Amino acid sequence: MSDQFELKSPPFDSISALRFSPTQPNHLLVSSWDTTVRHYDIATNEQKAKFDHRAAVLAIAYPDASRAYSGGLDTSVKELELETEKINHLGQHADSVSSLTHLKERNTIISGSWDRTVRFWDPRAATPQQSSHDLPERVYFMDAVNNTLVVAMASRLFHIYDVRSMGRPEQTRESSLKFMTRALACMVDGQGYATASVEGRIAVEYFDPSTEIQDRKYAFKCHRQTIDEVDHVWPVNALAFHPQYNTFASAGSDATVSIWDHKVKKRLRQYPRYPSPVAALAFNSDGTKLAVGASYVWDTGEEGARTAERPSVHIRTLGEEIKPKGWTG
What distance in Å separates the CA atoms of residue 265 and residue 267, rounded to the nearest whole number? Predict the structure, then answer.
């Protein structure tokens, strides 16, 4: 039996995001530039539902078994009813919705946009939009853990908020990486986050501003290869932390996925290459599977698009390679 298989009925265009259900390890959402969000049961390898949007979908959140949320170039935040395939319009940004996250502690959906705002939503309320917060730049990526929200903006600027007090960020940081941020993910233990850039680097950061803790942060090179004595550097497109072990996966335009133990600063495994650059990653809720979205990511413009492989979503069964050495949890 292979430790990996490909999903049937993948999107037709580049994959923007993957999210597993927080309670159903076999239920996966896939959003795409083909203007759809697709809901799959990976156990039976079938598409259970498909939600058509008016424009490319850039972001999704999957807070509970029955509902998901989406946003993208049509500027609206939508609620997707997974059983009925009904779409409810929650509200609108003034520009594209670039990022969505679910804050478990407050059961709140948070959206970030190129309109330079972060907005909080309660889908159960008569007026779903609860608040809007201005930022100095366009929002590219967001993630949240334990009431802490990390927002990555256009010029490598990061704001770190306590969501209970959104008046001003608790911390403002410049990226440790010199080039544009391409991915962001919070550690599951709530200690910090990892970011990745277009020039093959990952930075590991910690929230605690004390000098002692900040001395532990570091950055490293990855998704690079020397071919005929020429160094090739690829963007790192996606990061995802394992829900149990706090190790993380990185994916790049070199079509590879690596697993890292950031505490000992070591790579645990690099999987065989995929047919296309890897655009998105997600671990399922029990940490037994990794979804890998392989698709063209426009690194080489329209010319590359003409010869790109069709998008594909691969489901990998995970083994001991994702555990930190000496794990006794």
Answer: 7
| Beta pairing class for 230-233 and 236-241 | unpaired
Read off the DSSP letter of residue 309. Answer: P
How many Cβ atoms from other residues are within 10 Å of residue 178's Cβ? Answer: 11
Name the strand (E) or helix (H) holding 305.
helix 301-306
Contact 79, 85 (CB under 8 A): no
Distance CA 279, CA 17 (A): 8
Tell me the pLDDT of the chain averaged across its residues.
Answer: 94
Instruction: In whole angstroms, give the CA distance from residue 317 to residue 329.
Output: 20
- Per residue in 200-231, pLDDT tens? 999 999 999 999 999 999 999 999 887 788 88
Identify which of 186, 181, 178 has the alpha carbon closest to the alpha carbon of residue 158: 181
Which residue has tokens 């570091």? 218
Q: In angstroms, what CA-CA distances link 34 with 173, 220, 304?
A: 35, 34, 17
Domains and their CATH numbers in the chain: 4-319 (2.130.10.10)
Strand, helix or coil for residue 306: helix
How far apart are alpha carbons 65 and 82 in whole angstroms?
8
Instruction: Using a pLDDT cut of 70, give the percent of the chain over it.
Output: 96
CA-nearest of 301, 280, 283, 308 to 15 is: 280
Radius of gyration of the chain, Cα coordinates, nearest whole angstrom:
19
φ, ψ (nearest 5 deg) of residue 213: -75, -40
- CA 135 to mean position of chain CA atoms: 21
Q: Where are the beta strands (DSSP E) in 135-277?
A: 139-145, 148-153, 157-162, 171-174, 181-186, 192-197, 201-206, 218-221, 224-227, 230-233, 236-241, 248-252, 257-261, 266-270
Q: How far is CA 146 from CA 133, 189, 192, in A?
A: 19, 9, 11
Name residue, tokens 């505490």: 263
Per-residue model confidence (pLDDT) at position 228: 81
